[in-house]
Amino acid sequence: MLLWAFSFRDSLEEYAEFLQKSLIEHYDSSQESKLVKKYELNVTNNGFCRYKRYFNNGKVEYFAFKLAKFKDLDYYGTASSGQLFLRTKIDDVIVQTYNDKKGDVDSMAACIVIPLKNIEAEDLNIMKERLTKINNP
Asked: Which domain of life is it from (predicted)?
């Protein structure tokens, strides 16, 4: 049983590293370049996905969820450009906004939307497979 726990931890780290690399490699900043000046996208080896966007007007949006809460993913677009929807089981995505004209907001959501480019269906299937394995070792 103890060996199994260590092998899963290694798998989680490997899966997180793969997901981080894939999302950064395929991130499409051109879809948001008129509004967003900077972004941070991290998949941590302790099982979190975090996405932060810094807007030109000073507003900041932060999204985060535990990978164990992953339910499914959808991709809308073409191989050259589209949007990845990472969906959770229920409203498991933390959403925070700062410096917004409407005020700072803390809420929950059921997905994170990440703009991607140059990604094939096979890459998306591998991402989904690894996210699913995190939930069902």
From this structure: Bacteria
Do 47 and 11 contact (CB within 8 A), yes or no? Answer: no
Tokens 């807007």 -> residue: 55
Domain ranges of the chain: 2-135
CA 119 vs CA 11, 35, 103: distances in Å: 23, 23, 36
C-beta neighbour count of 110 within 10 angstroms: 16
pTM, whole model, 2 decimals?
Answer: 0.87
Q: Please tell me what DSSP assigns to residue 27.
A: B
Contact between 99 and 76 under an 8 Å Cβ cutoff? The reply is no
Query: What is the identity of the amino acid at 69?
Result: K
Q: Which parts of 70-126 are beta strand (E)?
A: 70-77, 81-88, 93-98, 105-109, 111-117
pLDDT in tens, 61-90: 999 999 999 999 999 999 999 999 999 999
